[in-house]
Amino acid sequence: MFRWYQNADLCYAYLNDCRCLLDSTTAAAENQSKPAQKHPYSAASDTFDIVSNLIANKAMAYGEAIATNPIDRPQIRAKAVTGRTVFVKDRITQTSGPTPMVALKVLNRMIREDHVKNKYHSQKFHERKGLKKKRLRSQRWRARFKHGFKATVSRVIELKKQGW
């Protein structure tokens, strides 16, 4: 059975050889004459490596911090393709509720606003192109008529309050 401490001396010698090889390669690269640079900063300069390492470390730390807690992630408005998420939090927002019952009501409101039920039934069966155009034109007209009718009714109520 192999034990890690049996060959510790051999591993240590191998690591020393690798370190010496790396040091000699680095020294040879430093001794080579560097071409004169036109610009003070370039991607090949040592300062670029330092800056890129700093940026990479910051980005990695930020990614690890966000990935740990899903509640701390920025909330996005989920489209139908990515799903719908409602959080149970201490107050009501567009995507959260203080209790599970309120959160379900928020979810129902989101589904109603996205017309999920209508989309489900419309996708159940195939609809010819001409019929689809006809149906959509009718739906748009109904929506325009509803908007205009509500505006007219509100104007009539407003005028009635004024005594007309």
Automatic annotation (TrEMBL):
* Source taxon at top rank: Eukaryota
One matching Pfam family is Ribosomal_S21
Q: What is the lineage of its organism?
A: Eukaryota, Fungi, Dikarya, Ascomycota, Pezizomycotina
Q: Which family does it belong to?
A: Belongs to the bacterial ribosomal protein bS21 family.
Please give the coiled-coil regions recorded for this protein.
none
Protein name (Swiss-Prot/TrEMBL): Ribosomal protein S21
According to its UniProt entry, the protein's GO biological process terms are: mitochondrial translational initiation
Listed A to Z, the keywords are: Ribonucleoprotein, Ribosomal protein
Q: Quick one: a GO cellular component term?
A: mitochondrial small ribosomal subunit
Matching entries from InterPro entries are given as: Mitoribosomal_bS21, Ribosomal_bS21
What is a single molecular function from GO for this protein? structural constituent of ribosome
